[in-house]
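Ticket #149: bound-state structure for copper (II) ion.
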Amino acid sequence: MDESYSALLSARARDRDVRPSFPLVVASALLLAACGSASGPLSTGNVFIIHISSFQYIPQDLTVPPGATIVVQNEDLAPHSVTSEASAGSFTPGAVAGVSFDTGEFSNAQTIIQIPSTAPDGTVVPFYCTVHKAAMNTPGGSITIRAPQ
Ligand SMILES: [Cu+2]
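RESOLUTION: The complex was predicted; output attached.
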């Protein structure tokens, strides 16, 4: 399951003209969640959404558990990305505590960020847009990883 899904994401990254519809992405994410077993990283309720609209990340700061799936929906015709950085405002791709992600540039479409199930509790990963950097209306945001208490 995980391998085929990774292959799907890789294929999508290679061919940017092929973009599944939003319902397909959500259905895929929910299907993955439903497939999560005791040994899997996903469980029901682990799907979150970041919208990008009018050059703003909504929400700007999001808290998720380890193993979360984050659907990123860019509603702008302009291309944006959600790209992790080691420190907020550096506008350089990077990782915090081994956690990194990068949607790549995409417009008017959806893609997925997968937070590792091994992501350390309390990790705060800043992110930015590789296309617009400080020119975004929200120049960045953050994903905080918080294990369920
Ligand atoms: Cu942007």
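RESOLUTION NOTES: The first helix runs from residue 2 to 14.
TICKET STATUS: resolved
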